[in-house]
Design brief:
With 243 residues, the protein is mostly helical. Helices cover 60% and strands 2% of the residues.
Length: 243
C-alpha cells in the first residue's frame, strides 16, 4: 500500500512544460504544410509571453478563462481564430492555449470530471475518463504535502472516485489509463482495490436491505447507520445492477 506522495510519484519526473503535451489538447488544428520552427521561449519567459493573449481571452470569455476555468472543447483553437481573426495571431494564440491547458487551475477543472465547453460556455461533450485520470495524477504530482498530510491516500481516493464516475468495468478503465509510470500504476491498483472493497460492502448492504423489507430510514436506524450512508451504498450497488 502506498502511504505518501513520494512513494506514489518517486520515479516520475516533473512536468516539462516546454515539451510535454497538455493533458487535453483543445488546440488541435488540421495538418498543413510544414513551416519553420520558431525559437521557443522556456519557463517563466514562455508564460510571461502568453499573458497578454490570456488576458484578452479572459476579457472576451470570462466564463472560460476568467476567475474559474472550464475544460475546453476540442477544436476551440480554430473557433477562436475564426471568431476573432483580427485579434489573435495563430502562433501566439496556440502558445497561450498551451500554457493555459498546462496550468494547475485548468488541470484541476479537468480532474473534477467537468464536461468540455464551447465558446458560449455550454457543455458539449463529456471529458474522457483517461483525461480525467491523467489530470488527477498530474495535479497530485505538483502538490507539496502539508505536515502529516497523506497525499497518497487522497490520490487513491480521487482515482477511485474517477473510476466510479466513469461507469466502466475495472478491466476497461485500466486499459484506458495504464501507463509506463510504475508509481502511478501502483496508485491505480491500490485505488481500484479500495473501490472493489467499497463495492463489496455496498452489495452486502443492498442484499441486507432487500431482505429486511424495511424502508431505507428504518433499515438505517436498525443498524445504527446514517440514512445518507445507506442511500449512497444502495446507489453504488445499483450502478452495477443497472449496467
Amino acid at each position: 500500500m502506498i502511504d505518501t506522495l513520494s512513494d506514489v510519484i518517486a520515479s516520475t519526473p516533473p512536468l516539462d512544460t516546454n515539451s510535454a503535451p497538455p493533458v487535453t489538447d483543445p488546440t488541435t488544428e488540421p495538418a498543413s504544410a510544414p513551416t519553420p520552427t520558431p525559437v521557443r521561449k522556456t519557463g517563466a519567459g514562455r508564460i510571461q509571453g502568453a499573458l497578454p493573449t490570456l488576458e484578452k481571452l479572459a476579457a472576451l470569455y470570462p466564463g472560460l478563462f476568467g476567475a474559474v476555468f472550464l475544460p475546453l472543447k476540442r477544436g476551440i483553437f480554430q473557433e477562436l481564430l475564426a471568431a476573432h481573426p483580427e485579434s489573435f495571431e495563430r502562433d501566439t494564440l496556440k502558445a497561450a492555449l498551451s500554457v493555459h491547458t498546462r496550468s494547475t487551475r485548468y488541470l484541476n477543472a479537468v480532474a473534477s470530471g467537468l464536461a468540455r465547453h464551447d465558446l458560449q460556455g455550454q457543455a458539449v461533450e463529456p471529458m474522457a475518463p483517461e483525461h480525467v485520470y491523467q489530470a488527477i495524477v498530474e495535479v497530485f504530482r505538483r502538490r507539496k504535502p502539508k505536515p502529516g498530510e497523506d497525499l497518497g491516500g487522497k490520490l487513491r481516493q480521487r482515482i477511485a472516485q474517477a473510476f466510479v464516475a466513469s461507469k466502466l468495468s475495472r478491466e476497461d478503465y485500466t486499459s484506458l489509463v495504464l501507463s509506463k509510470d510504475d508509481a502511478a500504476n501502483a496508485a491505480l491498483e491500490d485505488a481500484l482495490a479500495d473501490a472493489a472493497e467499497l463495492d463489496a460492502k455496498a452489495e452486502a448492504t443492498r442484499r441486507a436491505f432487500s431482505a429486511s423489507g424495511q424502508t431505507a430510514e428504518a433499515f438505517a436506524d436498525m443498524y445504527g447507520l446514517h440514512p445518507r450512508a445507506v442511500a449512497d451504498a444502495l446507489a453504488r450497488a445499483g450502478r452495477w445492477t443497472a449496467v
